[in-house]
Amino acid sequence: KINGVEFAVADLSLAESGRHQIRLAEQEMPGLMATRREFGVAKPLKGARIAGSLHMTVQTAVLIETLVELGASVRWVSCNIFSTQDEAASAVVVGPHGTPDKPEGTPVFAWKGETLEEYWWCTDQLFRFEGGQGPTAILDDGGDATLLVHKGVEFEAAGAVPAPGENDPEEYRLVLRTLAESIAKDGQRFTRMAKEILGVTEETTNGVKRLYKLATDGELLFAGINVNDSVTKSKFDNKYGIRHSLIDGLNRGTDVMIAGKLAVICGYGDVGKGAAESLRGQGARVVVTEVDPICALQAAMEGLPVVDLNDVLADGDIFITTTGNFNIIMAGQMAKMKHNAIVGNVGHFDNEIDMAGLAKIPGIKKVEIKPQVHEWQFPDGHSLIVLSEGRLMNLGNATGHPSFVMSNSFTNQTIAQLELHTKPGEYGKEVYRLPKHLDEKVARLHLDALGVKLTKLTKEQADYIGVDVDGPYKLDHYRY
Ligand code: NAI
């Protein structure tokens, strides 16, 4: 803690470089900057204490400083051990007007290359606001912060934290340990905290799935706003974001020539569609695997062969998982790949690729080519290149999606936080989506920057198709 600002980041002297990058990003984030202009004076988030767990990048810095400008008190961690941009984290701590000796910004607990143990320590810090207070809202990406609170409340009610099961993954063991330590010091901390939390705004597909599961099981402790399924989020960030950042990660990680190679995309949802376009744009021969007949048909109609993974193991040069599911590429399958095939994941969690199984292959050796790029040498002499240890490689090997598309996502996040804080009575213990007029508003805020000239409906035309001249222009079930 320096000058009253708590933090744990790599190096505050990186703040100046971070500030320059934030300044450039602001220009590319018109939605967030318009939101600052609209609400910066009224400060409608005054009194809000927002605990944010989302990749600590330059774009996230602009989100954090928007929430602060709207009046919120904020604490932040990254939702992935490799995704922090250290200069952005430092700049947020120092703040726009502070110096590394006298920081005046926002508490951040995040650095690139955290251990899993450090990751959960950081996540616990997220909830420790000044004066022993907890948050009034969570801003989550993947649901880890929400999970910690829910598990905390569950174990406090049970009076004990269970011992980890034999098959529990390392990560869950660390959740249990973090909670055991916390509950040993203060047995009702999470229960008290949960009562003050108005809700969570969730960024990504996997986190949203967790929220709906909690709601269906009757276990959701506060409101959830599903930001991912705003059209201006998932149909833009998941698709066009990955179209940009997937090849960025591949290039920075390996610099391998993509043209002409056989690229296998597992999953053809929003992220898979962007991934396929990204690689096809480089001239790769792209094939897809799918379980859903609708998405498989979409791929086929785009001219992409839909294949069984096992049939392309020996020929594929690049394998990318995008499913949000687990056990997509298993160790035995990786053993059959060609020499120096590249394997990477852009789905939220690291269990799409069987890294644990890979490490257990007798005689296998892991050689670090550089951070987040590893060569796995099989005893028969052939090797594989695995990016970011199976974690989100577009954030681990590159810097994630660019500012402009994240402005869409984060304007939705800001609006969702405004909804929770300013309309506390309107949201119960359910999962909600933002109304369509706000989705259209987010899109509208990004049109000028791209020189878009919208056609205006006449009153007669609007009446004819049964909408208002000013929107919403589609019924809720329209799929875009
Ligand atoms: P989605 O649900 O639209 O797509 C996933 C697709 O994978 C579905 O079509 C599903 O049928 C398919 N699938 C499931 N199991 C499969 C299997 N065994 N084999 C082949 N295909 C399978 O989800 P979306 O929005 O595309 O997100 C995918 C993942 O990417 C999620 O984990 C999400 O959280 C994450 N994500 C990552 C981003 C990044 O920057 N890396 C950005 C946005 C989302």
Automatic annotation (TrEMBL):
Residue positions binding substrate: T57, D141, E203, K233, D237
Matches recorded under PROSITE patterns: ADOHCYASE_2 (PS00739)
Entries under InterPro entries matching the protein: Adenosylhomocyst_ase-like_sf, Adenosylhomocysteinase-like, Ado_hCys_hydrolase_NAD-bd, NAD(P)-bd_dom_sf, S-Ado-L-homoCys_hydrolase_CS
Binding site for NAD(+): N238, G267, Y268, G269, D270, V271, G272, K273, G274, E290, N325, N394, H401
EC number(s) given by UniProt: 3.13.2.1
Sequence ranges assigned to domain S-adenosyl-L-homocysteine hydrolase NAD binding in this UniProt record: 238-400
Gene Ontology BP terms: L-homocysteine biosynthetic process; one-carbon metabolic process; S-adenosylmethionine cycle
Details of cofactor binding: Binds 1 NAD(+) per subunit.
Pathway per the UniProt entry: Amino-acid biosynthesis; L-homocysteine biosynthesis; L-homocysteine from S-adenosyl-L-homocysteine: step 1/1
Superkingdom, taxonomy of origin: Bacteria
SUPFAM superfamilies recorded: Formate/glycerate dehydrogenase catalytic domain-like (SSF52283), NAD(P)-binding Rossmann-fold domains (SSF51735)
Molecular-function annotations in GO: adenosylhomocysteinase activity
GO cellular component: cytosol
Compartment annotation: Cytoplasm
Cofactors (names): NAD(+)
NCBIfam families noted in UniProt: ahcY, PRK05476.2-3
Family the UniProt entry places it in: Belongs to the adenosylhomocysteinase family.
Official protein name in the record: Adenosylhomocysteinase
Organism: Amycolatopsis xylanica
